[in-house]
Amino acid sequence: MNRLRRLPIDVWFEPIIILVIGIGYLLWYRSTTFTSTEQAALGWATLRTTILAHIELTVVATLIVVVVAIPLGVALTRPALKRFEPLAVNIANIGQAAPAVGLLVLFTFWLGTGFRTAVTGLVVYAILPILQNTIIGLRQVDQRTIEASRGIGYSATRTLVQVELPLAVPVILNGVRTALVILVGTATLSTFIGATSLGTLITTGVTLFLPRLLISGAILVGLLALVVDWLGRVVELAATPRGVS
Predict the structure, then answer these.
(1) pTM reported for the whole predicted model
(2) Residue 203 · residue 213 · CB < 8 Å
(3) What is the protein's membrane topology class (predicted)?
């Protein structure tokens, strides 16, 4: 009980919300009579494929963003490349400034339609939070701590790996968590360029005026975003060194 009290409120309260919404949707799903079109989209075999496709799209895009943005953010905090930081951040900001649908459509002229194009568009759209948080996290490490580590004989690389990055972890992971939630929501738009996602349920529900299909898509995307946000928060809490908040 004492351990539960020491946990931040969102760590234990968010799963309760997820369970309440999930159980509510399941009860509604089991008690609702669907049309043949709705049954075709919401049958478990089809729905499972759609959910897994949405998760795959989100995970692949996130992994690429992490592999690109974190090393780039680290490099831009080093003295040799520090002057390029404003330029890199402004370029990354283009993805956030452009409408997500427009960005995906533009990429179809270059890459065609499908999964690869959707991933590329999502990577461009979500790179800013991780890049910016990596830079901010490393910038806020106390300079005296860095100087002390160099003073006891640590190399620049060892100082980065053993001192700067561990202290910057909470801020960096917060950026990853933000990017994940953005990607879960934005991935629904990939349906417009031929990639399977939960957006298919939403667009079909709107096009054919099937409210139950639309509601199902919206609730499932919301649940997935909540689950991802909670998992990201748990990882963030577990990876944060003791004494760092």
Answers:
(1) 0.88
(2) no
(3) Multi-pass membrane protein
Q: What secondary structure, in 3-state letters, does 162-186 show?
A: HHHHHHHHHHHHHHHHHHHHHHHHH
Cβ–Cβ under 8 Å, residues 223 and 55:
no
- The pLDDT of residue 175: 93
Q: State residue 132's pLDDT score.
A: 94
Give the span between the Cα atoms of 100 and 1, in whole angstroms.
Answer: 44
Per-residue model confidence as pLDDT tens digits over 188-219? 999 988 888 999 999 999 988 999 999 999 99
Q: Which two tokens stand for residue 22?
A: 């999930």
* Under 8 Å between Cβ of 64 and 107: no
Tokens of 92: 């990354």
Name the stretches of the chain with pLDDT < 50.
1-2
Q: Tally the C-alpha atoms within 13 A of residue 209's C-alpha that lie toward its C-beta.
A: 0
* Alpha carbon separation from 179 to 109, 123, 131, 143, 232 (Å, rounded): 25, 9, 10, 28, 10
